[in-house]
Design brief:
- The protein is mostly helical.
- The N and C termini lie far apart (66 Å).
- 15% of the residues are buried.
- GO terms for molecular function: sodium:proton antiporter activity.
């Protein structure tokens, strides 16, 4: 039984370390802010989750102790990472719309142009007189 626990812990730690490495590499190497968001919010979050589950398995298998700390950290991480990424993306889009920010050329290329009659959820600023520009008035 002990070797199965050791194998599970080793697999979870290696999987978590691989995800964290890939996520950190994406954070450093991707050119634009929107692309860099995927590294810490997707891969690194899954990597830390695997490391924390490996810690739970280790303490339960070797010491017979259930620990809630790792589970609470995982819940906090899985709740806060998407919310913070959403806020960073909103600020980034706002700064691009107002012209306060110029991004380097993206791997994905330019975003597609919106349809002429649609001005919400796009990279374009609302047109004067449209429902999006007068919604806050």
């Amino acid at each position: 039984m002990s070797s199965a626990i050791d194998l599970a812990v080793a697999a979870l730690v290696l999987l978590g370390a691989a995800f964290v490495l890939i996520g950190s590499w994406g954070l450093v190497r991707l050119p634009s802010t929107m692309e860099r968001l995927h590294g810490p919010t997707k891969a690194t979050t899954l990597g830390l989750g695997a490391l924390l589950v490996g810690s739970v398995v280790f303490f339960q298998g070797k010491l017979g102790v259930w620990t809630a700390h790792e589970l609470l950290i995982s819940v906090f991480l899985f709740i806060t990472a998407p919310i913070s990424a959403n806020m960073i993306a909103k600020v980034h889009l706002h700064r691009m719309r107002t012209g306060a920010l110029v991004e380097p050329e993206s791997i994905a290329g330019e975003p597609p142009a919106p349809a002429p009659d649609v001005d919400w959820a796009t990279f374009q600023a609302p047109r004067d007189g449209s429902s999006a520009s007068t919604a806050g008035s």
